[in-house]
Amino acid sequence: MMIGAFTDKGKTREHNEDSYYISDFSASGRGYCIVADGMGGHNAGEVASKIAIQEIKNNINHHYNEDMSEQQIEELLISSMKKANTVIFQKSLEEKKYSGMGTTAIVCLIHNNDVYIAHVGDSRAYLIRDNQIKQITVDHSVVEELIHNGSITREEAINHPQKHVITRALGCEEDIKVDIYKQKCKEKDILLICTDGLTNMLTDEEILQVIDNSPDMQRGVEKLVGLSNDKGGLDNITVVALSFTNSI
Question: How do the residues of the chain divide into helix, strand and coil, expressed in percent and rounded to 5?
Fold first, then answer.
């Protein structure tokens, strides 16, 4: 498995409120990665995303084992997200400077040829296969709801004034609904996970073109971040890419 990861604060933000983590991967390809995009004033977004990474990581490391069933893995990912939500929410209540903080979070766990994805917010997971790119996750955002109910087209969403408003995030409410996806991956597939600092700057086709023309995953993700900055870098940008170079 080839892995690339890169994060940058972009051209307009003072701080990087994105966080990510990549676990060690076993010889059989088992492992996981997490990406989080924090929000809130006074660096609270950075605090929220770091808490999310730490709590999710600790919960998975403590409870995961290779004999788990599909249902057990999904329950583990949901419980990990909910644990992070609780810790962030409590901290936002206890410290005034962190009031209202929250974070998106996306976890991709690879187990026995399957990728399990837990998702809250508008960070995304993509599958790149056979020179095509497919978005796996569905954004929890105002514009996505407007697209879903037919109020606007996907093209109109690109410049919509509420483009950055999300409808779901860890830490904003006492409980959280977590979406779960399962994707079977095969040799030469690429799984790409990113924050909206990338997808608000680049189209899916631009992402595909960069990855397809990169000699390895690390140079690919660095080029994606660089291109996003060239187009304005209006937000923090984080990209993680996993290439299944061998059967897993």
Answer: 35, 30, 40
- CATH H superfamily, domain 2-243: PPM-type phosphatase domain (3.60.40.10)
Tokens 């023309």 locate to 213
Q: Tell me how far the alpha carbon of residue 89 is from its chain's centroid.
A: 20
Confidence (pTM): 0.94
Q: What is the mean pLDDT of each run of 10 residues along the chain (248 residues)?
A: 96 95 92 96 89 98 96 98 98 94 97 94 97 96 79 71 84 96 94 96 97 96 98 97 76
Q: Go through the chain and tell me how many residues it has.
A: 248
Domain ranges within the chain, ordered by starting residue: 2-243
Phi-psi group of 76: left, alpha or beta (phi > 0 → left; psi -120 to 50 → alpha; rest → beta): alpha
CA dist., res. 80 & res. 180, Å (int) = 12
DSSP character at residue 131: T
